Amino acid sequence: MDWKAKLEALIGSSVLSDEDKASWAELIATSQENFIESLSEILEQFPEELDWFNDVYKRKKAAFALFSNNKAEGQAILKEIYEEEKAKLTELLGR
Asked: Which of 7, 52, 88, 89 could form a disulfide with 40 if both were Cys (CB 3.0 to 4.6 A apart)?
């Protein structure tokens, strides 16, 4: 099974809402292979973290939506999210 199929299966069998699953399907369909591979590997090892990744993804989308009205605020929120992601990935790699 390829990385994309693995990620789609993991998301599909999760307890995420249908709306969240559709959002992830769209992201997977439009993302580059290296992103899909990395995310698939992480979620394969840490499936319990899917809710966290889902929350971060939704917050990123909201931050990007701010760019049309308040780019500085959107950028500030994204910076905080990126720092949170960095800390989370460091934590996961240390397990």
From this structure: 7
